[in-house]
Amino acid sequence: MDDIGKRLTTQWKDAVNLVLGLWLIASPWALGFVTDRTPTWNAWAVGVVIAVAALAALIAFNKWEEWVETVLGAWLIVSPYLLGFSAQMHVTWNQIIIGVIVGGLAIWSVMATPETTGRITR
After folding, report:
1. Which of 1, 9, 44, 70 is the most buried (most CB within 10 A)?
2. Rounded Cα gap, residues 78 and 103, in angstroms
3. CA-CA distance, 113 to 122, in Å (whole number)?
4. How far apart are CA 61 and CA 117, in angstroms?
5. 99: number of Cβ within 10 Å
6. What is the per-residue pLDDT for 7?
7. Has residue 119 been placed in a domain?
8. Is residue 122 very low, low, confident or very high in pLDDT (cuts 50, 70, 90)?
9. 3-state helix, strand, coil in the chain (%, to 5)
10. Each residue of 48-60: pLDDT tens digit?
11. Structure letter (DSSP) for residue 68
12. How many domains does the chain have?
């Protein structure tokens, strides 16, 4: 149990990204756009990958997980415009805000982790 506390202290950014990935999965129901297929499937697919990458980073940190989250964060920012649902402001702002936070935290994690360590030791 002490290991979990230490891990969350050093990897809180990954824990936040895990929660944000789960929020993306739930957001079509919470924000009421589940009947609109394009933004719903985008939120589900990206949310699942973000959550899995964040969980993988919490288990055994590797920089590639952070780069995946960075790319997905960027995708969330541009996807409402590329997929054609930018007129739905609540959906668009949800995805942009989540994209900025996920991408920012992932870049922060990469920059804060020394190059010599691929995994966090116990």
Report:
1. 70
2. 13
3. 16
4. 9
5. 24
6. 61
7. no
8. very low
9. 80, 0, 20
10. 999 999 898 888 7
11. H
12. 1
